[in-house]
Each structure stands twice: as structure tokens, then as C-alpha cells.
Amino acid sequence: MARQMAAWEPRRGDPVLVATRRPQEPSLAARVLQNVGRLLWWAVRYPYLSLPLLAAAWIGRQFGPLPLALVLTVVTAALVLWHRHRPASFARTFLLWRRWLRRVQYARHWQPAMVGADLHDGFGGQTQVPRLGRVTLTEHGERVEVHLLHGQTPQQFMDRADAFAHSFVAQRCSVRSLGTGRVVLAFQRVDPLATVVEPAPLPADGADVDLAALPLGLREDGRPWTLGLLGRHVLLAGSAGAGKGSFLWGIIRALAPAVTEGQVQLWGVDPKMGVELSFGRSLFARYWDGDATTTPEPASDDDDTARRRTRRDDKPSDPALAELAQLLDDAVALMQDRLRRMRGTSRSHVPTTAEPLVVLVVDELAFLTAYAVDRDLDKRIDRSLRLLLSQGRAPGVLVVAGIQDPRKETLPFRDLFTFRVAMRLVEPEAVDLVLGNGARLRGAHADAIATTMPGTAYVVLDGEPEPVRVRAAWIGDDELRDLATRYPAPVPLRLVKDDTGEAAA
């Protein structure tokens, strides 16, 4: 019998009993002591809540309900007077109360939310979840610090930002790493971008225009959003109706006082026959909108620079397209001339009235890169754009362009743009094409921007590891016309050389 039992081996399908050990549950006394200790800990940590409650309980027990009601009435009246005559002090004091209430709300739903998001651990027979840290109130929501469990990464929390927003009934949640073992969840309950953003006032003097911080709109946290334009090529990617015009005109408007002072020079390219940029025609020193008759001859700096410019085609197949190619060739010639003069003397351009910052504004870049029908002109345009984007930052010849389709087939040199804006996009994959790999997982849901919020976009800002949602200010047609009237580009002087070789107007 022993031999038969020793020879027996389990077969597939046979039931197997496994001895398991249930973790021992704490006794009733232990649970009571645990709850009492927790209550005492809360009372010590939040005395501004526990002391009034203890005082109210003592008054009610010693003197009855009527004196208690009288005391509560007096306290309420005092609070009303305090709020009316010392609102700042009242707000600071009761901010602690609001913070405590919020923490209680988060603590109540914390474990179910972490378990539902699969961020728990069952080590030791008990469910462990990331520890809830400090809860800080912001103007538009709360910031919640979280201490991660062993083996967890910030990316796991970033991937579940939408789940957190639904769990804690917030409009939006973004996740940012705070260093080793900690992340912060930023919950947004009031959206400052839900309403139209008003443009910031313009400085009275063009010298006061800060090219390193052009005011364009608002961030999702309610702070002003500024764009550092110096040394940057800017790409605005968004589907039709996403609000590219708000960004283009926001940049132009912010530069306008410096334009009329001569420190900034705008060159405009509008392939849609001037539908977008024609409102500000007088702001542009050079302008092209598909009509060969609208592009003026460039003002030459001197005869040597003029000879270095690329020669026009003798017989262009499309005169208007040839004008565009020439405009871009002139920009390249200006850029290369500055680079020659900077050699050995400077590494970056400083805008002056003699050497202004040149900003090439292109309304629809795809026309220049994918839709041109003339092969020779297309090669000229493509070469000029590549040269400007690869070499133009240091000498102060910058490109600001909008495009609907950011794919490589349409824009093969997309990566040469050093600052990119993702407005409403059709496909989720397009978000990473614009902002870089993993941008959508980190919260840049540009494909989910509502059609009722034109001018809303996601950007990656310096010092911010996660994409930030912004909205550009709305600028109406009447204001654009007024802008063009108040800040026209100065008329360039054509320089010639007299018999002595000196330049004269």
C-alpha cells in the first residue's frame, strides 16, 4: 500500500488542495484603540477644529441648548464682521479649514481610487496604497502630494490622470514628479480657459517689448502665458478652426510696438490670397499672398548684398510662386550676410533699428512644402526654408508658421522648429508628432480639445516636465485694423553709394 501511495502522481485535472493561512484580523479592542488614537491625532493636528467642537460640547452639557444657541449666534455674527472688515485675515485663517475639509474628502475616497487604478499592493496579506500627503488649495483646485510605494514610478500615475479626475470629481488632473518617491496630482475644478481670454495691454514704447516674454494668453493655472521668441522657430499645428490665427496674431500684436520702432521686421506669407494676414498688411515690411503684384521689391542694404541675393528665374512657370521663392531667397541672403559679419565677433544677434529681428510669418506652411506644383520653384522654396530653420536662430531671422497636417509627408523638417504648439488635432497620434514622444501620455490631449474653445493648445515650457494647457487671447478684426493703423512698419530706405563710395539715402 505504501508503495502504491508513493508511486501515485497527480494527473492533469485532478483537484489539489492547498493549505492557505488567512491573516489574523485585529480584535475589537485593537480596532477601538486604533480609532481612538486616530481621533486624538486629528484633534492635535487640527486644533482650530477640535477646540471649538470641544467648547461647544462643554457649553451644551453645562448650560443647556439655549445658551449654546446664543453663543453660536454671537460667534456667527463675529465671523461675518471679521469677513467684512478684515477679508484678507479671514481668508488666511479659513484657508486652513477648507484645506482640512478637502483632505478629509480625499482621505475618504483615497483607497478605493488607488485600488481602482491598480496602484495598490497586497504584500503581507494587507492592501497597501500610496500614502496621501499634503493637500494644498490653489485658485482653481487642489494640489495633492503622493508618496509612492516601492516599485512604483511617476509614469504609472501619469498614465492614470484621467482616472484620478473621474474618481475625485474634477474637471482635469495633471501629474508631475517631485523627485524620488513623490508625485503631485494637480486637480482642476474651475477652468480659467473656459471663457475668451482678453489680450494684454501693449507697452507704449517699442523698446519696452520683451522679446523673451511676449504675452499671448493664459495658462491653465490662471497665470499669464508668455512666449520667448528670441532664438526660436515656432510651429503652430492644429486642424481647421483650431484657432491658429489667435496665435499668429497674438505674436504679431505683441511685436507691433517694436515693429513701428524698427527693432522688429515682419515678413508675411499668406497663401490663402491674403484672407488671414491682409488685415495687418501695413505691419509687414515684406508681404506675399499669392498675387505677384502685391510683393514690393526688397530694399537693398548695399550693392554687395544685392549681388549676393539669389537671381530670379528668367521664365518662371508661375509668377506669383516665383515671387514667393524670391522672398525666401532674400531672407536667406540676409541671414547669410549677418552670419558672415558675426563670424568671430558674436554668437547671437541683438536686435537694433539698424539690424532688426526679422520674423517670417507663414499662415499655411503646407502650401510651401507639399502643395507647390512647380518642381524647380518647389526645390528653391524647400532649400530656403531648410536653411532658415537650421541657421536663422543665431542671426535673428526667425520663422513662425502654422500648419494643419504635422506629418512628415507634409512637413519633412518638422524637427527644426524649436518650439511647437499643439492645438486641436484630429488624431491622437498627431500629438506626439508635434510635442514629442509620450506627450499625450503625460496629459497633452490635444485631440480632445473642444471645438467651442478655439485658441486652446498644449505646449512644453522650459522648466515644466509635463505639457501645459494654454489659450491664446482673442483679437477681433476691428482690433487688427486698428493695430495696423497704429503700428505700421517704417518705410525702408534704399541705400546707394555715391562717387566717394559712401552710402547715402
Task: Please sum up the structure shown.
By secondary structure, this protein is of the alpha/beta class.
Q: Which percent band covers the strand fraction?
A: 15-25%
Top-tier CATH class of the largest domain? Alpha Beta
- Please name the CATH topology of the largest domain: Rossmann fold
CATH architecture of the largest domain: 3-Layer(aba) Sandwich
Number of domains: 2
* SSE succession: HHHHHEEHHEEEEEHEEHHEHHEEHEEHEE
CATH homologous superfamily caption of the largest domain? P-loop containing nucleotide triphosphate hydrolases
Number of DSSP helical runs? 14
- List the strand order in the largest sheet: 6-5-14-13-12-7-11-10-8-9
N/C terminus separation:
120 Å
Low-pLDDT runs of 5+ residues are: 292-317, 493-498, 501-505
Mean pLDDT: 79
Main beta sheet: 10 strands, mixed
Domain FtsK: 222-432
Keywords: ATP-binding, Membrane, Nucleotide-binding, Transmembrane, Transmembrane helix
Region (Disordered): 292-319
Biased composition (Basic and acidic residues): 305-317
